[in-house]
Amino acid sequence: MAKRDYYEVLGVPKNAGDDDIKRAYRQLALKYHPDRNPGNREAEEHFKEAAEAYEVLRDHEKRQIYDRFGHAGLENKGFTGFSGFEDIFSSFGDIFEDFFGFGGHRGGGPRPRQGGSLRYDIELSLEEAFAGKEEEVVFPRLEVCDECGGTGAAPGTQRQVCPTCRGRGQVIRSQGFFQVSSTCPSCHGQGSIITDPCPKCLGGGKQRVERRITLKIPAGVDNGSQLRLRGEGEPGENGGPPGDLFVVVHLKPHEIFSRDGTDLMAEIPISFVQAALGDQIKMPVLGKEEKEVELEIPDGTQPDDVLKLPGKGMPSLRNQRRGDLYVKVRVQIPRKLNDEQRQLLEAFARTQDKRPGGRKKKGKAFWQKVIP
């Protein structure tokens, strides 16, 4: 199913301000909230769609990317929406409380929380970024303790109901005519305590392990590109979803090419004779099919002229269409001439000083042309 335009989803114009966007989302979230539409799959999809639109348009950086490149631009940056209700509620928990007076988590006990996200930096050559690659990456992360199953209690024991809050996770204090509810100081909102902690995780319920995964890097990634691997981050709390792993790409400098988006730039040295008479030279390019192509040097080429090789740049992440290669010409002037070369150049110079028929040109010196 194709994604709809986010502005259309929220029913706001493209120049809508933050308050208008929040107000529009509030109305849709209230209308399609799962608690108000039990078992209604269509309402659930509208609820998720509105949350995704709000997540993008409330974030100025995501909104700028979306306005310029649409859904594909966000996907290239690693944003693919929410995995489910708990993902939404954990992201917008405070907002739901502001909107409706109740939290996103339905039911008693501590609120589920999404696990923390992780970052992994990877360095690639320009050739690897051009072709894409698969690479095994190893990184440390927390996982549920395999000794206690994440309970934090020693095997054969269980967490005990907190005697302070009696399992509610909240304590109520009276202040005059009012009652104030706050997080239980004994169990920190868990509703239960550990009397005999697990010896392996020391009651934390998690252990640090080395995680190995095969990373597929698409062709065309650029310096600073982020690849998002859902669920490869830290485990969630209280049944919440795991976090994500963000892989940040860094490109090594290349000895020939520099890059601007999908375009490549290079410089080549040519002799002044090649510049004057023209020539065909071999130009290296990226790719498996061809390592070099013919570059036509037109006669009369000037220093710093830029020649274009269409379709010889980097592939686009969105459609794999290749950019162009721009070649800047650097004309080299010989520092030393032998006698024959000097005589030939002097003879050429004399032909520039005469009109056809052997008559000498009569013209102003350069400085006389510039300063009358």
Summarize the structure.
This protein has about 375 residues and is an alpha+beta fold. Helix content is about 25%, strand content about 25%.
Report what the structure shows:
The structure is a single chain. The longest helix is centred in the first third of the chain and has 17 residues, at 41-57. The model is unreliable at 100-108 (pLDDT under 50). The protein is built from 9 helices and 15 strands. The chain is elongated and about 105 Å long. It is an alpha+beta fold and 372 residues long. The N and C termini lie far apart (73 Å). Among the domains are: 1-112, Orthogonal Bundle (Helix Hairpins); 258-370, HSP40/DNAj peptide-binding domain. 27% of the residues lie in helices and 25% in strands. The strands form 6 sheets. It has a 4-stranded mixed beta sheet. It has a 3-stranded mixed beta sheet with strand order 1-9-8.
List the helices and strands and how they pair.
Layout: H1 6-10, H2 18-32, H3 41-57, H4 60-76, H5 85-100, E1 118-124, H6 126-131, E2 133-144, E3 160-161, E4 170-175, E5 178-183, E6 192-193, E7 206-217, E8 226-229, E9 245-251, E10 258-260, E11 263-271, H7 272-277, E12 279-284, E13 292-297, E14 306-309, E15 325-332, H8 339-352, H9 366-370
Parallel strand pairs: 1-9, 11-15
Antiparallel strand pairs: 2-7, 3-6, 4-5, 8-9, 10-11, 12-13, 14-15
Mass-distribution shape: elongated
Number of strands: 15
- Unreliable spans are 100-108
Mean pLDDT: 83
Assign the CATH superfamily of the domain at 258-370.
Urease metallochaperone UreE, N-terminal domain
Discrete helix count: 9
CATH architecture of the domain at 258-370: Sandwich
